[in-house]
Amino acid sequence: MKKTKLILIAIVFLMFGSTFAQDNPVNEDWLAKSSWAFGFGIDYPRYISTNLTDNYSGVGGLLSIQRNFTEHVGLRLLGGYNYLAGNIGSVRIKNSVISGDLDLMYYLVPCEAISPYLTVGVGGVYYKLKNSPEFNNNSYSTYSMNVGFGAEWSVAPDWKITTELGYHEVAQSYFDGVRNTVGGGILGGTTDSYMTFSLGGLYYFGKGEKSHYCDLYNGVDQVDYAKIEDIVKKYQTQPTEVDYNRIADIVKNNTPKVAPSTVEGKWVLIGVNFDFNKASLRPESLPILSNAAEILLTHPDVNVEIAGYTDNIGSEKYNKKLSLERANAVKEFMVAKGVAANRMTTVGMGESDPVASNKTAEGRMLNRRIEFKVK
Length: 375
Known about the structure:
With about 375 residues, the protein is of the alpha+beta class. It has helices at about 1-25, 225-235, 245-255, 285-295, 315-335, 360-365, and strands spanning about 35-50, 55, 60-70, 75-90, 90-105, 115-130, 140-155, 160-170, 195-205, 265-275, 305-310, 345-350, 370-375. It folds into two domains: about 1-205, Porin; about 255-375, CATH 3.30.1330.60. It is about 20% helix and about 40% strand. The chain has an eight-stranded antiparallel β-barrel with strand order 1-3-4-5-6-7-8-9. Strands 10-13-11-12 form a four-stranded mixed sheet.
């Protein structure tokens, strides 16, 4: 009956979080390459492997600080207090537990509004027993092994709701107040263990550089029609109505379907250009690079030299450095999309081999480009 109650509570929490996340889309939130977060919440702890004849679900609380090093991997320091109780005969043994855990976290799908993760770690445990026939009012210190499964539910920019189910195996046989002789932890031996279901909040207070890991290639859906219309109006000689359907057809018809025999050679990535004196990728470059990544992922035997270029403004030495930074920015994006880093090399070509005149602003923009030399 009590196990059924625990399962029902977990389902209610999950349904609440799912409804809240779906009804509150987070359009302004974004994933960082690295980040810091502060967490807090409540615990619902319960013995799951002890010598007690009856267990009672307790209460608890937690605080955490975590550092995410990549989009997938993080490290969390979590401190908590939990109260557990259970009967031996007619005597109810009470246990007050203070714990500090260091957990490695792995996010399975970091780009989703509901992002599940796994945890594994170790912790220090301090606990005090009351009403124990053998250990009454005694305090002990030990360590534990912890594993867990949870999810972060996006509800606002930088804010998440967290739900997590954790398993904690304590390295002592009398954690519940009764000395075990046989049986014990799930992993074997005579150790005791307990589980926790937690509900809390997580605030991302520090974010690093914005990640492009979640930028998906959606074909014509990412065409900036407003920008195209501005260009048409700027250069038109008489009033013109923009035909968006024709623009979409052009984009579709010019997206190459690359066969294995035509992959090798030089690709000039038309549309992958840079602002003056900058190496950051422009938003309109992302669909083009995503498409290039898809081609490389379907041809795993192909290697690429990524060449960056500049216009002719600035010294030759500086332009070499800037063009290499541009090539490295593209490589980082391709790695985030799943292309192995050892398949790509980068080179800075500076202002060499212009494809347009450097006497005009439009020509200089075209010269600030990326080329792939596929081999």
